[in-house]
Write a structure and sequence with these properties.
Elements: H1 8-23, E1 25-36, E2 39-50, E3 54-58, H2 65-73, E4 80-85, E5 88-90, E6 97-100, H3 112-116, H4 118-123, H5 127-140, H6 156-169, E7 174-178, H7 186-201, E8 206-211, H8 214-220, E9 223-227, E10 234-239, H9 251-272
Parallel strand pairs: 3-8, 3-9, 6-7, 7-8
Antiparallel strand pairs: 1-2, 1-4, 4-5, 9-10
Length: 273
């Protein structure tokens, strides 16, 4: 539809709705609280994840990032707070988001293809269509020819690629990524970082990722939340405007990296003492 075919008021309304949809929070978390016994993991925690954005949480080890994902997915209950999904109140994201863990969690007795088909199998999807889609994704992610290999027969990077295919087979708009590349060598990690960008650019997913790697955050993120030590709070939110892939030699990006490291430094020293 062309704007010039609409009367002025309709055109303005159409443009407003279009621009609002581009930045409307897919996920909004307000006042989220989690304690174990008397240990406060986070309290009054607020953040948003906007549609079609790559949001990264970065903070010191043990600050509560993975616990936050457990609460979001319903693996454990919160002690307070609320979350909304596309404007509607929800208890958790268990049936709304796909989740890619630190470990690939492939079943060792299943082939890579069968592992990738688990979401379709448990969801009752048409087997033939699901297998065709999985094979297409294997080709897109460089796994053609390995469909019938067992997990122990391929490298760690290939197992994570298969885990990525399995994640896409859930066909969820939001993907939670809990340091999925942390166990990989640097060369494999760089290769898979490029594939994570495909989740946003080609597969049109909204992403929320945990990482300890500042360079990884700067490479992938549109929005970065810098987190404190426990009880976890947001120290700062940084929005990056440069197009990806980014030039790490740019003074502006170097300045942002320095700012993130300075924000993290006090908590890292505190935790290590």
């Amino acid at each position: 539809m062309k704007l010039d075919s609409l009367v002025p008021n309709q055109a303005r309304l159409f443009l407003f709705l279009y621009l609002s949809a581009a930045v409307w929070p897919m996920l909004a978390v307000s006042g989220l609280t989690k304690t174990f016994d008397r240990d406060s993991i986070f309290s009054g925690f607020d953040f948003t994840v906007s549609l079609n954005r790559f949001t990264v949480l970065i903070g010191p080890s043990g600050c509560g990032k993975s616990t936050l994902f457990d609460v979001l997915t319903g693996a454990c209950e919160s002690n307070g707070g609320k979350m909304s999904w596309q404007g509607n109140r929800v208890d958790n994201l268990g049936d709304l988001a796909a989740y890619m863990h630190q470990k690939d969690l492939l079943l060792p007795w299943f082939s890579l293809l069968k592992n990738s088909l688990l979401p379709a199998t448990t969801g009752g999807d048409n087997r033939t269509r699901a297998e065709q889609r999985a094979i297409q994704l294997f080709a897109r992610l460089g796994l053609t020819g390995y469909e019938h290999h067992l997990p122990h027969q391929v490298s760690g990077g290939m197992r994570q690629r298969c885990a990525l295919v399995r994640t896409l087979m859930f066909n969820r708009d939001l993907v939670l990524l809990d340091e999925p590349l942390s166990a990989l060598d640097s060369i494999t990690r760089k290769s898979l970082q490029s594939l994570l960008l495909l989740l946003q650019s080609e597969f049109k997913r909204t992403l929320l990722m945990i990482t300890h790697d500042v360079d990884e955050a700067l490479l992938l993120a549109d929005d970065i939340y810098i987190l404190s030590a426990r009880p976890m709070k947001i120290k700062e939110k940084i929005t990056l405007h440069d197009k990806k892939p980014r030039d790490f030699d740019k003074p502006e990006l170097l300045a942002i990296k320095k700012r993130i490291l300075q924000k993290l430094e006090g908590d890292i020293i505190h935790v290590s003492e």
